[in-house]
Hints:
The chain is α+β, with helices and mostly antiparallel strands. It folds into two domains: 3-16 and 349-545, no CATH class; 31-218 and 226-340, Beta-galactosidase, Chain A, domain 5 (Distorted Sandwich), CATH 2.70.98. The protein is 35% helix and 26% strand. The protein contains eleven helices and 19 strands. It has helices at 3-27, 244-249, 325-331, 345-362, 365-379, 381-408, 412-426, 434-453, 476-491, 498-515, 520-545; strands at 79-83, 87-92, 97-107, 116-122, 127-135, 154-156, 163-172, 175-184, 189-198, 204-214, 229-234, 238-242, 253-257, 260-265, 268-273, 279-287, 294-301, 304-306, 311-322. Strands 1, 2, 3, 4, 5, 6, 10, 13, 16, 17 and 18 form an eleven-stranded mixed beta sheet that branches. The chain has an eight-stranded antiparallel beta sheet with strand order 7-8-9-19-15-14-11-12. A hairpin with a 2-residue loop joins strand 7 (163-172) and strand 8. Helix 4 crosses helix 5 and helix 6 crosses helix 11. It is elongated and about 105 Å long. The chain starts with a helix and ends in a 5-residue tail after the last helix.
Amino acid sequence: MDNTRLFLYAALAFVSLLIWQQWQVDYGPKPAVTEQSQPASPAGEVTNANQANDLPAIESLPNEEATKKDNKVMAGGELIRVETDVVEVLIDTRGGVIESLKLKQYPVDVDHPDQYLELLFQRPDEIHVLQNGLRSADAPAPTHYDLFSSPQSEYRLAEGQDELRVPLRWEKDGIEVVKTYVFHRGDYLIDLKHRVNNNGNKQWKGSEYRQITRSRPLSTSRFLYTYTGAVVYNEEIKYEKVSFDDMEEKPLRLESDSGWAAMLQHYFLSSIVARPDEKILFYTLANTRQLPKTYSVGMKSAIQSVAPGQSTEFASELFVGPKLVDRLEEIAPGLELTVDYGVLTFLSKPMAWYMAWLDRLVGNWGLAIILLTLTVKLLLFKLSETSYKSMARMRKLTPRLKSLKERYGDDRQRMNQAMMELYKEEKVNPMGGCLPMLIQVPIFLALYWSLLENVELRQASFLWIDDLSAMDPYYILPILMGLSMLIQQKLNPAPTDPMQAKVMMVLPLVFSVFFAFFPAGLVLYWVANNTLSIAQQWIITRRIESGEDK
Length: 550
């Protein structure tokens, strides 16, 4: 058993994992849902009949029916510009929708540091926005299609200012609603508040909805799988993915005691977090009658009543930004699970934490990965030593095994019997190197997910590499890995089967091409791992062949 075979096992395990994940998406268990009927025509003014599909249903109130209004075409409102030290935001006064949010600390790529990644956007062929509003069966209530007013068209976080409040006002028939977004210094958390002031002479009843609406991504990686879609979480179901296909097949309706909902993509998320004591209804909507098709995941509050002359407030939190585990853990239980380490979270998460600690220690993610490799090698030193000793003894027996093959020719039964006698005589276990190598396969997969999900590696540089989360632009690391595999083959016992020997000679080239499309940080780990393995194996092989180690 040699290190080349380890790559085969790792590749098989990796492909099997991706197949299993896709099976879970297609056929895995879905959260239990509570069916609720939707009125044929939602109340409120909307742009057109298609757009009405992205409004959550109104719960039927006792002895009352949702009113039906004609759909009216509406123009867009004015754009309010908001800037803090970490985000640039555009809020449309039509509905108070956050339709653009750029991350000032995350450029689109290393070649354009002044072009910030736009996480929320609204384009002709793609959309990802945050929508919210109020719903009432028989009273005025602004949805994300109603027009708000704002005292300013631009807000900027000033020096020494820790929070920035952006108020939007709407009023109709004595019902005043003040929607307020609160931005914080150095943070991607946004407070959302709807204050309802009943200045009329009738009781107001209604609920708040908050939803994330986006279209399917226009392109996905063919080599690296990362989940893009919705997730809902509460203490009962824990973490449940709801794909775009799930939304089309059957809308989610799930009553819950608090929780959160999110749309995930590689390295980033947009999420809505309910108050800890809030009764909510999770829901999804698939609006497939327009282009681009849009999909919404959201939550709706319980109905609140406001007597004339009284007020009430709906409140929740929005997090729109990078998947920073430490910060997500502080915001809400389970929100850190959006950093999806897969089935090997128990290994991947400590690895990610340890790499982050090493990066703070040495100031470079590439060096941190090399030090992680050294740590893993030290932890597995005795297992590796057992494996390399077994392979060295097998290598020492190679000439005698070849002579047995020549002696018995095609008589496989006699040859196998003679080989077993030789192993017994020399006290060699031909499978002695298998288990230690197989133990490294889950470590490889765990490291793969920790590197794939770690946003800190995005655009982290090392020597000639500008981005350790992307493939090596010059293919130097994949070539070095192929060369290291060739060297390891020279140290391993040669296969007695000529066909197997030819296959093994081709494998370094195959895996160099295979790993050329992997994140450079992952390939760096394997180059460092192979280099340390070669040194350890060479020393052990030299000792055994010289008779120093019996």
